[in-house]
Amino acid sequence: MKSSVQKSDFKILKVIGRGSYGKVYLVEHEMTGQIFAMKCIKKEVIIKADQINGVKGKLYYAYSF
Predict the structure, then answer these.
(1) pLDDT confidence of residue 58
(2) Into how many domains does the chain fold?
(3) Are strands 22-29 and 35-42 parallel, antiparallel or unpaired?
(4) 11 φ/ψ angles, rounded to the nearest 5 degrees
(5) What is the average per-residue pLDDT within 25-36?
(6) CA distances for 60 relative to 48, 57, angstroms
(7) Are 57 and 31 in contact (CB under 8 A)?
(8) Is residue 4 helix, strand or coil?
(9) Is there a domain that residue 2 lies in?
(10) Residue 64 has what pLDDT?
C-alpha cells in the first residue's frame, strides 16, 4: 500500500483557475474516481517572494518549470 499521494495518482480534467503562483486543476483520483481541486504552485516563485511560511501546513504539489 502506498503511503504518500503523488501527482501521478490523478488524472487532470481541466484548469479551473490561474494565478501568479500557479494553477488550480480539477482532477480525478485514478483509483477511487473521487474528484478534487489540485493547486500546483511554482516553487521558485514562492521562494523568491519569501512566502514559504504562507504555504507551510497546506497540501500542495510544488513544481518547477
Answers:
(1) 55
(2) 1
(3) antiparallel
(4) -105, 125
(5) 92
(6) 17, 9
(7) no
(8) coil
(9) no
(10) 36
